[in-house]
Amino acid sequence: MSLNQRPSHGGYDNVAAVRWELLIVLTVTYGASGLRAILRLIDATLSSTKLNEQTATLNAQQSPTPWLDPLLQISSSGVLFAWGGLAVLLLLRHVPLRTNLAPRTVWRMRSKDWLFGAGLAAIIGLPGLLFYFTALHLGLTKQVVPSGLDDNVWQLPLLILNSWANGFAEEIIVVAWLGTRLRQLRVPWPWVFFFSALLRGSYHLYQGYSAGVGNIVMGLFYLWYWKKTGRVWPLIIAHGLIDSVAFVGYTMLGGIPG
């Protein structure tokens, strides 16, 4: 069925519907996050305090009340899981199972996905850490504080939950969903790489310029992997592992000075 044809049953594959879906989902999710991050970076740059003397807390406390903050943290993670779930639902319900425009995303998890995910985490995570400390020294990023949560029994489970919520939402929306939808609109692959990577970089800019650049590189690599394999679980696993190690490691070491 052509994208310009209206289907005779149930789903929708026409150009207008795909464009509206892109606009609405990105506005609700990472498009809006990217815009806010850009504005926050502008505000930080205009500040009299040097960028590398400012801090960006990734898991900030949401309430001083001991029993209420965990509930707010869980609800925030739940929103991320819901974002990813919405993208999965849209892809499964409204995208043909076979297409020569984009790889068919494989949703079934395999045991070897954990091995590939760990490998991807090492490829991205270790150079990323070196890049962060170099950028911090050059004044191109804020001091990133992985956790601002209270030291209590809830801290580590909440950090791990948020790590995997981030991975689930980002890799499904920014890679599998966005890549599939753009290809449905006949967007050439170089532009798909550009838009996906730029989106990923944009919503990390609140941390500093280097965070945007580093995540653009990460986005290009992850989209290439999905294009070649059609598999999204190794990307989710890699992202979850990177964030878990960063969040939990920072907490267990009692914070790493910038």
From TrEMBL:
MF terms (GO), sorted A to Z: endopeptidase activity; metallopeptidase activity
One GO biological process this protein is involved in is:
proteolysis
Q: Give the superkingdom in one word.
A: Bacteria
Which residue numbers delimit the CAAX prenyl protease 2/Lysostaphin resistance protein A-like domain?
Answer: 153-244
**Which InterPro entries does the protein's record reference?**
Rce1/LyrA-like_dom (IPR003675)
**Record-annotated membrane-spanning stretches:** 20-42, 71-92, 113-133, 209-225, 232-253
Q: Which Pfam families match?
A: Rce1-like
The UniProt keyword set, sorted, is: Hydrolase, Membrane, Metalloprotease, Protease, Transmembrane, Transmembrane helix
What is the designated name of this protein?
CPBP family intramembrane metalloprotease
